[in-house]
Amino acid sequence: MNEHKKIHLKDYRPFEFIVDHVDLVFDIRDDHTRVTSKLKMKKDPARANETTPLVLNKGTFDIISVVAGDMVLLPGEYKSDDEIFSLVATPDIFELEITNILKPDENTALEGLYRSGSILCTQCEAQGFRNITPYPDRPDVMAPFSCTIVADKTRYPVLLSNGNLVKSGDLDNNRHFAVWEDPFKKPCYLFALVAGDLDVLEDRFTTASGRDVALKIYSEKENIDRCSHAMTSLKQAMAWDEKRFGREYDLDLYQIVAINDFNAGAMENKGLNIFNAKYVLADPQTATDDDFMGIQGVIAHEYFHNWTGNRITLKNWFQLSLKEGLTVFRDQEFSSDMNSRPVQRISDVKKLMAAQFPEDSGPMVHPVRPDAYIKMDNFYTMTVYEKGAEVIRMIYQLLGQALFRTGMDLYFEKFDGMAVTLEDFVGVMAKVSGRNLDQFFRWYTQSGTPAVSMTRQYDENTKSMSLTFTQATSPDRNQSEKKPFHIPVRIALINRAGETVKQDALYELTQETDTFKFENVPADIYPSVFREFTAPVRLTTDFSDQDLAFLMARDTDPFNQWHAAQTLFVNEIKNLVTAIQAGNPMAVSAGLVNAFSLALEENQKDRAFLSRALALPQETEIKDHFEIIDVEAIHQARTFLKQTLAQKLTSEFKTVYELCRSANSDDISGGAMADRSLKNLCLSYLGSLANNDVQDIVQKQFEHAGNMTDEFAAFKILSHMNADVRDKACPAFYDKWQARTLVIDKWFSVQAQSSLEDTLDQVKKLTTHKDFTMANPNKVRALIFAFAMNNPMHFHRVDGQGYEFTAERILMLDKINPQTAARLCSCFNLWKRYDENRQAMMKKQLETMAEQKELSRNLYEIVSRALE
């Protein structure tokens, strides 16, 4: 395995040159695109002298001409390879024109300029612009851009870039052009271009100050009728950002383009957002309620980047959470205000616990601000995004809404148009609040998830309760000793009647051990701690299962009700796993069944909340509660618990299922979605019994559903029942939806996650299906990722075939799309936490990958970290 150089935060230095303007010309031809960049540059007098060379980042393309000033340079007068372009010497002020040839049809990595179907588009974050033209490809170099696109008018009637369209027209030979100018300085990672035969959905938005903004969403013609929800979400986000943060949109045009081939969810390029079609296209017939919610959140996220990421950007890539963590917090708050705040909070924390907590205990553990990277793409992680958002939320908790808004206003005022650091952001919050946030800043520089334990002590004589909190964070590859974090914790006290006897207030943990005393309280009081999950910690308490059952029913904080229920489920599964490992008979406690039954009968509660509170944690989440992961025992225990609840509460599940069937099938209001979520949860429990009566209910919903939410829920259940049922349902679903590529992605994912014995064989067959291609990340995520990440029983097969299949696909992908390959390889990250046999087999696959002579930098970083 060839070693690759690390980039360290401590080595950051500003660029020695200033780029005053960038003028780009894209001449698009059938088999290539000619790119000409004209850079107006000057030396930064504070950092450069007469001997300072100009060094630009460069990709693997051919340069055909270089003009410096008025002189055409010969190849020997500049240096160029697959990584850099350089000039030994330059004048203080100069113009540099470089022309190069790109082959977008051959660009399977989907970085720089590439083809998605009939559309040409770009993806430049994090370091893709260097694959378009030589340039200082770093976020702290900001300049105004203009872009001219020339192409065939029939094949590419729509020509888009950042900013405002200032000129367009026809040329000879059925060609035409468009000239775009972006009036705002931006780093090159925000550059965007799209050329293709697209239809457009148009709307308008009037800002708070009365400015009229044109809104345009582009897609392939056959999909334009499924863009209306995205447009509604965009207008909601624009109005919300004005009200909540005082941020108006700053251009006269805002554009979104839906692309089928995309490495991520979406990209916030200034004024021209390029989206994975998955997060734009939706109607009730082809999209689930989760899809609608996802689109609303991602549309908002990219729009909010206009200020937190675009207008104010990053000094260097180590500060990535400055834009991503902050913007995730903003989109979470938006979704909370648009929908159910408790349900949104539960969804966000569930994602954090399921994916980020394990990241903190694996080989890729890193602080929210990493110290070093080999390939920046590998640090678009849950830690940077989701934990980064939790760090912002803690600041919000510590300051309160009003002061936080004052801090945000000052941040926008002080740093508009600049590239800044996390210290700049936290410094503003310290200034407006008058608080010392030095200890708090450890959340950005110290890795790992703090483990916080809470114990209670009641004094009968003084009628007081003391709560003692102890925090500890395990050493890891980044720090051998961990210092205490500054942890906010919101606490309320609840009596046996479910009444709040002490309203919630914010307390702060700053030592290894902190104790808080509450006077004049009764003995049978219950503390409700970390309400709304005020900090990203692993919490353990001295609550008994009876205490948890009470909190599940009576806690006045919905998040803590959910967390109590999930803790009860995990405790029960742990007991069942212990019984399995000891060879003892399994049994589910009557207390849990009773608590579950009482909650199910709470028809006055928010049904969306109930559907989450009563859902068992997935096996991929349960594993995080075991030091050594017993794959079979966890699967057997969870299955037994689900089937036992279904058997004992069959009548109740059927009653609630019928109660929730009244919503109109095409209604995507919050109430209708809540009804469907609880209805389909009940169906999932019933479906685990797999008897003829239940199978008929599921089959009827599958065949007669009026929307994708209900049809897909039934399809998933049928895929687990038995091979005969699955083999009838899969062709029926495919025949109905084969023309809708996003629905077929769902079809792939359901089969990849089936619990049936022949699942791996089915997945292998599907890799040769005519609708599957390794070149499209959505297809790979739908099939290979779904299998490796979400089907532990079959990925972790005792014969190792799941590992072998996945590793082979990772190496195939590395030749095509290194970003996607590296992300898939994370399925091996926790290999040391399995039994010795599985450890040996997973390590063997990692070593096989390490032995490859030409691993990409992306995959090298993941594999080498895993093997450390």
TrEMBL record:
UniProt EC number: 3.4.11.2
Q: Please describe what this protein does.
A: Aminopeptidase N is involved in the degradation of intracellular peptides generated by protein breakdown during normal growth as well as in response to nutrient starvation.
List the GO molecular function terms.
alanyl aminopeptidase activity; metallopeptidase activity; zinc ion binding
Family the UniProt entry places it in: Belongs to the peptidase M1 family.
Q: Which residues form the Peptidase M1 alanyl aminopeptidase Ig-like fold domain?
A: 448-541
- Domain named Aminopeptidase N-like N-terminal is located at 23-190
TM stretches of this protein: none
Sorted keywords for this record are: Aminopeptidase, Hydrolase, Metal-binding, Metalloprotease, Protease, Zinc
What InterPro entries has UniProt attached to this entry? Answer: Aminopeptidase_N-like_N, Aminopeptidase_N-like_N_sf, PepN_Ig-like_sf, Peptidase_M1, Peptidase_M1_dom, Peptidase_M1_pepN, Peptidase_M1_pepN_C, Peptidase_M1_pepN_C_sf
Which reaction equations make up its catalytic activity? Release of an N-terminal amino acid, Xaa-|-Yaa- from a peptide, amide or arylamide. Xaa is preferably Ala, but may be most amino acids including Pro (slow action). When a terminal hydrophobic residue is followed by a prolyl residue, the two may be released as an intact Xaa-Pro dipeptide
The record's PANTHER family line, in alphabetical order, gives:
PUROMYCIN-SENSITIVE AMINOPEPTIDASE
Pfam entry (one): DUF3458
Lineage: superkingdom = Bacteria
Q: Which GO terms describe its biological process?
A: proteolysis
Name of the molecule in the record: Aminopeptidase N
Cofactor(s) required for function per UniProt: Zn(2+)
Give the Peptidase M1 alanyl aminopeptidase C-terminal domain ranges.
545-868
- Where do the Peptidase M1 membrane alanine aminopeptidase domain residues begin and end? 230-442
Q: What is the lineage of its organism?
A: Bacteria, Pseudomonadati, Thermodesulfobacteriota, Desulfobacteria, Desulfobacterales
Task: Give the main EC class.
Answer: hydrolase
Hydrolase as UniProt keyword: yes
